[in-house]
Design a protein that fits this description.
The chain is an alpha+beta fold. Helices cover about 30% and strands about 10% of the residues. The chain contains 7 helices and 3 strands, in the order αααααααβββ. Strands 1-3-2 form a 3-stranded antiparallel sheet, with no helix packed on it. It is globular and about 60 Å long. The relative contact order is 0.11.
Length: about 220
Amino acid sequence: MTREQMIHPDGAPDALFFYQLLLPIHDTLHEGTFVGDPRMPYCPYVLECTEVYAITELRTRGSGRGHRFKEMSPQEMLKWDGVVVMDLVLGGSRGAIRRRFDRHQNNNTSFCRHIADAMTPSRWLEIKRAIKLNNNLTTTRHGDPNHDPAQKYDYIFQCVVHNTNALLVTKHACLDLCGDETTWMNASWAEKGSGIMRRGIEKPGGAKGGQLALVIDVDQI
């Protein structure tokens, strides 16, 4: 990893470079960037789960029922994620994300050209309806042996944690470090009594859902 790999020619950080490190767009298990790539794949796995859901649950692939679901590609999924990130960067639309696509109203201050150029609003909503982080064919049900109540949404966290530990190891480090942490709230999608949430209210309006920690050399601040 070099400085030139992590920045654009204008000096701005290359966000896609870091996205690809932590949430690989390609299949690292079979066509990794290098021999022995230790990262977990992200986009290919999510696309597989999404296709399974579209076929078995939505029945919109090849069944003749409803609107046909067009197969997704890793590139399209990257754009879909980008719409979500850009919406949050702009302050969040609070459920009115369709306004980010609307080019026709001159007084629409929520419009974002980058979002509108990425894909159509109908395609974004179509993907939102089908996207899955777990394979419904192998999902356990409440009461089954070894049931995991977090299985529907924890894959992205597994990827980030595993791939961070697998790759981001420094060769030269300062003896003095600076660290900080942040937590996010989560009401949890699991059923009552699942045991995911064991603590009380940590912040106003919600319970602790997770925590991120960042440690860097003091001479890099």
